[in-house]
Amino acid sequence: MAYVSQIPWLENFSVKDNILFGLPLDEIRYKNVIDAYSLATDILSFPDGENTEVGSIGINLFGGQRWRLSFARALYSRAGVLVLDNISSAVDAHVGLHILENGLVDDLSHDRTRILVTHHTN
């Protein structure tokens, strides 16, 4: 099971290591997760790209970036159950729709149980 809290939690690792979280790198899956969460542009803007350290010892991320990175870790995992706590509150409507279409209902979430807690009925 993977849990994505409303308040994102990140380790003092690189962007890439926060997503992999100890799992071996699968280049295609990693790229698909980056695309699903619209992280490519953000990563290009970081000083060391995907190797940029985040967390208390690294760069500060905006709320939406922190949340998308936390969610990307859950999606990259092989967890059969994803519990998502009010995830849409940290992103704008355009990004939220992209994440819904490319992360929650696409191949990356296929055969997974997704439990979504939200106040957004649309």
Alpha carbon gap, first and last residue: 26 Å
How much helical structure, as a percent, in the residues? 25-40%
The biggest beta sheet is recorded as: 3 strands, parallel
Strand content: 5-15%
* Series of H and E elements: EHHHHEHE
Description:
It is a single chain. The protein has helices at 15-20, 27-36, 40-45, 63-76, 93-104; strands at 2-4, 81-85, 113-117. The chain is an alpha/beta fold and 122 residues long. It has a single domain (2-117), classed as 3-Layer(aba) Sandwich (Rossmann fold), CATH 3.40.50.300. A three-stranded parallel β-sheet has the order 1-2-3, with helices on one face. β2 (81-85), α5 (93-104) and β3 form a beta-alpha-beta unit. The mean pLDDT is 86.
Provide the descriptors you would attach to this structure in a database record.
5 helices; alpha/beta; three-stranded parallel beta sheet
